[in-house]
Amino acid sequence: MAGLAALLCAMGLPAPVVAEQRFATAEFLPYIDRSAPEGGYYPALVARVLAHHGDRAVFVDRPWARAHEETRAGRFDGSFPYVRSPSREREFLFSEPLLEVPSLLFVRRDTVATGGDAERARRIAAARRTCYLRDSLLPTPLEARAAAGALEVVRVDDMAQCFRMLEAGRIDVVAAGAYNGRSTLRRLHGAGGPIVALGGAIDVSTLHLVWPRSDPRAAARRTAFNASLAELRRSGEVDRLQAWLLPQAE
Questions:
Q1: Which of 97, 115, 167, 213 has a CA that sits 20 to 30 A from residue 233's CA?
Q2: What is the pLDDT of residues 71-109, one digit of tens each?
């Protein structure tokens, strides 16, 4: 787009109007990281998708609860990343998935008996206390137990707090997205620490960009965004960003 603008100016023609979309979001390691190239995976992807159809993304830091409320009220054009839920669907239009995230069950290494499906199911059924990020939905198996009143959830701002509580024996299990869980444990302990993932995924979530339903421009913006996102997937750009900016399994 910048090249086209320069060419038109050189020809004495007006540059195309670039629409700006402002997104409320917060640091969310490793996906949104001020110290990472281009701010991390989500900002890099969203900026590229908008640029593909000639728009510009502007990112504004807001705590998650405030980002939700101000976007719902129309003070921002959108926000990300969000997991779908019925209540959110009533307030927002959702993009096609920006990322598919498997959730893993983490336990203390010294309590591991086996790593099979039966052991994961037993741990989930026996858990009485867990920890998760504030204003976020738990992976489905634990969310169901919490909703039924069988599981107490301690809410924190950083997954590292959850892993420290697990190490200290103050909670029974931690469920975390694979990328966030891996990067947090590496940050805390490097390789071979006291916390391990127990087998494979217990749930898979898709994360999305949202626009407020109250904004009459939202539907058209979603259509343009999804079309550009699909094109970047076909070109391999999305896969390249994931390999570059997200922690990979060891």
A1: 213
A2: 999 999 999 999 999 999 999 999 999 999 999 999 999
